[in-house]
């Protein structure tokens, strides 16, 4: 009974649920503020995403007459559920241990695809031509960045597995524990190409400029989420806030989970600062300094650069092992 209560608390309160949503919205607010400053604008307040979410929950839900009702309503729920489950798998050194299962890294790989799948289902179910275009673009984007992500995860799993006398470990908790005992993989030269590949993966997975092609406002006016309003759109915003925490938290767990002592609050603050720095580097600076690319350009880019970088780390790891 105690384990069930703890699981519910972890899922709904901390580190998932309310905490993860608030954390993600706060990061998104900071991202918007820093981006505005970089562009010499005042920008919205940091708490603007919270205000937007509250306003959306009070708006009327409008469903197109020709939409597939069940799929249209269930799509954002699928994305939120997937990300809430994913948050529970992300260990935070000195704060939250995560799930000690041997295959949680592979589970995360599948869970990270659910937001894109939710957008595709929602876009296709809306019966909007813009949603259909967004569906096809989202599918191509997912195919583009999934390969380098898979190679990065495989490289880290092999690195830790070979170093501990095995073949590969797909347990995030074991990967984090290995780094606590032997040093962060961030400082291993064989892992630097994989780290760069993951940094490039982040803006594509988050759908920000220059890889916001599926939701390009000036071309297909938000694409898959064009017909969403009220609570449905709010759920997609919650999904995005959770995905921010999952993607940034995964990067930290894979390459730099090192805590600052054993103080819970200090380690939580340290985790927040690492997420903030990583977000500014991989999302804020990128989207404020680049313009949107075409779909074919994005596909070729991910096939060339992050994939090659991840392969370099994979080869170096195998040679070193």
Automatic annotation (TrEMBL):
- Signal sequence span is none
Q: What is its main location?
A: membrane
- Keywords of this entry: Membrane, Oxidoreductase, Transmembrane, Transmembrane helix
Location of this chain's protein in the cell: Membrane
The membrane-topology field of this record reads: Multi-pass membrane protein
Superkingdom field: Bacteria
Query: Might you give the EC number(s) for this enzyme?
Result: 1.6.5.11
Give the stretches traversing the membrane.
Answer: 12-30, 77-99, 105-126, 147-172, 192-213, 234-256, 268-289, 301-319
**GO cellular component terms, semicolon-separated:** plasma membrane
Report the InterPro entries cross-referenced here: ComplexI_Subunit1 (IPR052561), NADH_UbQ_OxRdtase_su1/FPO (IPR001694), NADH_UbQ_OxRdtase_su1_CS (IPR018086)
Instruction: Report which residue ranges the record marks as coiled coil.
Output: none
Q: Does the keyword Secreted apply?
A: no
Question: Which GO terms of the molecular function aspect are on file?
Answer: oxidoreductase activity
Please report the name of this protein according to its UniProt entry: NADH dehydrogenase (Quinone)
What organism does the UniProt record list as the source? Answer: Desulfotomaculum nigrificans (strain DSM 14880 / VKM B-2319 / CO-1-SRB) (Desulfotomaculum carboxydivorans)
